[in-house]
Design brief:
- The chain contains 23 helices and ten strands.
- The protein has helices at 2-12, 16-38, 40-48, 67-85, 87-114, 117-137, 140-144, 148-190, 192-212, 216-239, 241-246, 250-276, 278-302, 310-351, 412-417, 442-447, 463-467, 476-485, 489-493, 512-526, 542-556, 591-597, 600-609; strands at 372-381, 387-397, 401-406, 427-432, 435-436, 449-453, 530-534, 560-564, 576-581, 584-589.
- Helix 2 (16-38) packs parallel to helix 8, helix 4 (67-85) crosses helix 5 and helix 20 (512-526) packs parallel to helix 21.
Length: 610
């Protein structure tokens, strides 16, 4: 329960006003409930002992010493009314008062539940926002080690489980202890011997319930892991559907999905069976307790010095039975909370993930790019990986176009990813205008850069919003101008809705060349002084490449450009070509110089020429 209350303190803080309102309404509900039960005593007295009417004398309130004296005065008051108005009228009046008190009680009960709704929905919304903001803040390296399907499962299934298993029981965890405490206080007033005897058996019930639910958290954690595996499988299937169909692998993928869903079904069944046992077990234990109390209470009434009479005992049993339901609800909470805690444990894996990209408290200012980007003895490796970059030194002057080439795994993309601080260097430093980028604001640093990747990253939105992405208050004129420079305007206007056309998931309604031109238009609109091209034409056909290359040439004009090149024919006019191999710069120079050198670059060029 310590973990549970830690979660409540963490997320319920903005909703304390609602919590206090719920506590107040629950107290009123319990008090009026007790009053309505207390009315049963004089009602039963009228029904079963009419001969006792007129036998009671009033005890001054300053001399009242216990529940028996209070009951005596109630009997005296009812007896007087009966003598004055008759039994039927008084009985009818008491029944009306009973209904009125019940109406007030149920209204308070409803109100206490209603004020909990904003807490439950608010906590879930806040939790989802916290996870989403954490995802946005984490570096790219974190997601190379985590499956996207697993992250989606934590944001959907695990958060839903927390709502079902934790926030939904918050109401009963406030209400039921209040009911139990008030009911027990009244029961002690009615008969302390009987109540003390009852309490002896309560720990036995709680111990039995906790013993049954002890392994529930572990089973729930495993079930949620299988749910993550299921979501990952679905995500992989949707992403690779073309390959699955092309290689006739439907049965193979269905078999994999069958295995993981069967494992989840088996584990979920165990969890559900344990949860289902909560009600019958608590019902049985409650009935046993009631039977024992009936036996013991009966012996007290039959004794010569009983502190409670038969009508009071029946009222006592009514209140005692009313405690059974709150205890049952608490037992259900004892089952539900471990499931929620298991999901919260998985959520916390994301929320507690450390971001290695540290921001300076007082970062240096960098409003513009004036001189150069410089790599100083830079080394880098991914966790549990070989060395990717090994003591790289490189200067990229402002306004120059630098191409980076090399075989797969040479470290080209990693070198470029270090500039916007998608990762931090392990050794050495990268400086812009003489300032270490680790001492700059990440937001300011990345505002100077634009990216065009090999696989255009587009969103399920309109063409306008995709081009204007990341640029605040962009006008239609600005977007159209950028699209024209990117050779995208003509095909956009051929669409039925023009710039308001939705392009589908990841731009699925567009061709590869069209997606790339939208991506280029987005970079043009941002108008960054530093441009990073990551094999921007590698996946295009010859015709599309020509159109996109024209757009890129316009984009690169008067900018500092760092281009990772796959097709060497596209970088002949670069100011300098950097040739990389296994994390080292092995050659550098202009195209003609490197060809004349007859080294590694010429070997790569000749292979492509073939």
């Amino acid at each position: 329960m310590k973990e549970f209350f830690k979660i409540i303190r963490r997320y319920a803080r903005p909703y304390y006003t609602y919590l206090l309102g719920s506590v107040g309404l629950n107290i009123l509900s319990a008090v009026f409930n007790v009053f309505s039960f207390s009315l049963l005593i004089p009602i039963l007295k009228i029904l079963f002992e009419p001969s006792a009417i007129g036998q009671y004398s009033f005890i001054p309130w300053n001399e009242v010493s216990g529940f028996a004296d209070i009951t005596n005065n109630a009997y005296w008051l009812v007896s007087n009314y009966i003598l004055q108005f008759g039994q039927s009228r008084v009985l009818f009046a008491l029944c009306l008062v009973f209904c009125g008190l019940t109406l007030i009680k149920t209204s308070c009960y409803f109100g206490s539940s209603a004020v909990m709704v904003p807490i439950r929905t608010g906590i879930v919304k806040d939790m989802r926002m916290e996870i989403y903001n954490k995802i946005l803040s984490l570096p790219i390296g974190f997601f190379s080690q985590e499956r996207k399907g697993d992250i989606i499962a934590r944001m959907s299934g695990d958060v839903q489980e927390v709502e079902t298993s934790i926030t939904s029981v918050l109401d009963m965890l406030i209400k039921n202890p209040i009911l139990i405490v008030i009911y027990l206080a009244v029961l002690f007033m009615m008969s302390w011997e009987l109540t003390l005897f009852t309490i002896v058996f309560a720990p036995l019930m709680l111990f039995t319930m906790s013993a049954i639910g002890r392994k529930l958290k572990a089973h729930s954690l495993q079930a949620q892991r299988y749910w993550s595996d299921t979501m990952s499988q679905v995500e992989e299937t949707l992403g690779g559907l073309r390959i699955i169909k092309a290689f006739l692998a439907e049965k193979k993928m269905a078999g994999r999905f069958e295995n993981v869903t069967e494992a989840m079904r088996s584990k979920s069944s165990k969890v559900s069976i344990r949860q289902a046992s909560a009600h019958p077990v608590s019902e049985l234990l409650g009935s046993i307790m009631i039977a024992i109390v009936l036996w013991f209470g009966g012996t007290l009434i039959l004794g010569d010095h009983s502190s409670i009479d038969a009508p009071a005992f029946l009222s006592y049993m009514t209140i005692l039975y009313s405690i059974i339901q709150p205890v049952k609800d608490l037992s259900k909470a004892a089952y539900a909370i471990p499931r929620g805690l298991a999901s919260m444990e998985r959520i916390d894996k994301i929320l507690s993930a450390e971001n290695p990209i540290k921001e300076e408290k007082h970062p240096l200012e960098l409003k513009s790019f004036e001189k150069s980007i410089e790599f100083k003895d830079v080394s880098f490796k991914y966790p549990k990986s070989r060395q990717i970059l090994d003591h790289v030194n490189l200067e990229i002057p402002k306004g120059k176009t630098i191409a980076i080439v090399g075989a797969s795994g040479a470290g080209k993309s990693t070198l470029v990813d270090l500039i916007p601080r998608f990762y931090d260097v392990c050794e050495g430093s990268i400086e812009i205008d003489g300032k270490d980028i680790r001492k700059l604001s990440t937001r300011e640093l990345r505002s100077l850069m634009g990216n065009v990747n090999q696989e255009p990253i587009l969103f399920n939105d309109t063409i306008f919003n995709n081009i204007a992405f990341g640029v605040e208050n962009a006008t239609m004129e600005d977007v159209v101008r950028a699209a024209k420079i990117a050779n995208a305007h003509d095909f956009i206007m051929e669409k039925e809705k023009g710039y308001d056309e939705n392009i589908g998931d990841r731009g699925s309604k567009l061709s590869g060349g069209q997606r790339q031109r939208i991506s280029i238009a987005r970079a043009i609109l941002k108008n960054p002084p530093i441009l990073i091209l990551d094999e921007a034409t590698a996946s295009l056909d010859t015709e599309s490449e020509k159109i996109v290359q024209e757009a890129l040439d316009r984009l690169m004009s008067n900018r500092t450009t760092i281009a990772i090149a796959h097709r060497l024919s596209t970088i002949k006019n670069s100011d300098e070509i950097i040739v990389m191999d296994e994390g080292h710069i092995v050659e550098r120079g202009k195209h003609d110089e490197l060809i004349a050198l007859g080294g590694y670059y010429k070997k790569l060029y000749d292979m492509q020429a073939l």
